[in-house]
Model the fold of this input.
Amino acid sequence: MAPATWRDSFSVSLTVGAYGIAFGAAGVAAGFSVFQSCLLSLLTFSGASQFAIVGVIGAGGSALSGITTASLLGIRNGLYGLRMAPLLHVKGLRRVVAAQITIDESTGVALSQEERGEAAMRQGFWLTGFGVYIFWNIFTLVGALGAQAMGDPAAWGLDAAVPAAFLGLVWPRLKKNSDRILAASAALLSLALTPILPAGIPIISTAILAVIFGLRQR
Done:
């Protein structure tokens, strides 16, 4: 294994996984238990989707609204799967595991190793996918336990953790001006719809907008 592949995978895994602290705290602040917050990270394992769920439900929206929003945001992972399938050549249980760790980071690191060959790309995918998964879940537990120990989350300002952490996850991915314009437009639309629509619906509306324009760009 090339040292550069290991280095890239580890640095991305630790950096992204650390955001799990914010998610764990946000989950507890939104009314989820420590167990529920950790279960979301273990099973859902998609930062944007997880923050969407706790954000919608924490704002008073229904579970259906939260799940719908999370599912819309998770569409991109399916597209990543289509890109990675010919490279990984996995079947059975390994295919299920690969699907679980197919995220922005594992796909991104894999594709960045293209000059080093397909073996390095596969190593980058597996190392980053498992690395982020492990760190994300560890830090989710740390954040959730920390928030629980603090008592009233709102008194510590943890109710602002969802939008802040979500922005922290999304912003590094907005590399083109068109992406930034789309994100800003979606945020403004959500703010405009919030006073007139039930909780959760504005986020679903903007998620649909982002998915439609994102697919059109591809």
